[in-house]
């Protein structure tokens, strides 16, 4: 299995934007100039031009990490994207876990538990897809696709409970982006 250093995707609670930060250096990626190797820059360019991603700036940011830039093929790039999806799912899952520990109504607790399970499922699925991409790309594609209804149902539960915290909405939105990129 390829070894990648997973970059942290930081969700700003106030602006709900993402930024990728280099570990240890804490330098925003936009400040780092990395020459793109010819082959991989074409590969990343193909992914960046897909209209279905819904958020071009998110796509550009996620695909501008040094690991993405040097990916030799779509499989390596897909593995990296799935690992970023795992990191996002775990970060959002931690938020749900913190909220569950705080006193709340039974209805709210039910919604939070539902979303917690959805994010556990998403995290495990993204991890599984990372290893499946090499052996069975079609199964990997299917496994990414079936994450979406879980996250969509979580969103519906949150809206029905009138729980519209920006960081939860952002976590759901970014999860949809990773799912779209992975399909």
General description of the model:
With 183 residues, the protein is mainly alpha-helical. The chain has a single domain, classed as Butyryl-CoA Dehydrogenase, subunit A, domain 3 (Up-down Bundle). The chain has eight helices and two strands; from the N terminus they run ββαααααααα. The protein has helices at residues 38-48, 56-62, 66-69, 74-101, 106-135, 137-145, 147-160, 166-182; strands at 8-11, 18-21. The chain has a two-stranded antiparallel ribbon with strand order 1-2. The longest helix is centred in the middle third of the chain and has 30 residues, at 106-135.
CATH architecture: Up-down Bundle
Mean pLDDT: 72
Q: Helical amount among residues, as a percent range?
A: 55-70%
Enumerate the strands of the largest sheet in spatial order, edge to edge or round the barrel. Answer: 1-2
How do the SSEs run, as a string of H and E?
Answer: EEHHHHHHHH
CATH class reads Mainly Alpha
Tell me the layout of helices and strands.
Blueprint: E1 8-11, E2 18-21, H1 38-48, H2 56-62, H3 66-69, H4 74-101, H5 106-135, H6 137-145, H7 147-160, H8 166-182
Helix pairs in contact: 4-5, 4-8, 5-6, 5-7, 7-8
Keywords: Signal
Protein name: Pectinesterase inhibitor domain-containing protein
Organism: Gossypium davidsonii (Davidson's cotton)
Sum up the structure in keywords:
disordered N terminus, two-stranded antiparallel sheet, 183 residues, 2 strands, Butyryl-CoA Dehydrogenase, subunit A, domain 3
């Amino acid at each position: 299995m390829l070894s990648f250093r997973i970059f942290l995707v930081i969700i700003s609670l106030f602006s709900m934007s993402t930024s990728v930060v280099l570990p240890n250096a804490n330098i925003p990626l936009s400040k780092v100039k990395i020459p793109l190797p010819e082959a991989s820059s074409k590969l990343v360019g193909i992914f960046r031009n897909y209209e279905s991603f819904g958020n071009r700036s998110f796509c550009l940011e996620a695909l501008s990490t040094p690991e993405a830039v040097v990916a030799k093929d779509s499989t390596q790039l897909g593995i990296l994207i799935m690992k970023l999806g795992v990191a996002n799912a775990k970060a959002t899952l931690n938020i749900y876990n913190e909220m569950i520990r705080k006193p709340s109504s039974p209805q709210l607790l039910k919604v939070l538990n539902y979303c917690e399970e959805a994010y556990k499922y998403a995290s495990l699925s993204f991890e599984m897809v990372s290893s499946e991409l090499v052996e069975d790309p079609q199964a990997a594609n299917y496994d990414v696709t079936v994450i979406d209804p879980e996250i969509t149902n979580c969103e519906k539960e949150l809206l029905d409970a009138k729980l519209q915290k920006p960081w939860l909405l952002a976590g759901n939105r970014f999860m949809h982006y990773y799912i779209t990129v992975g399909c």
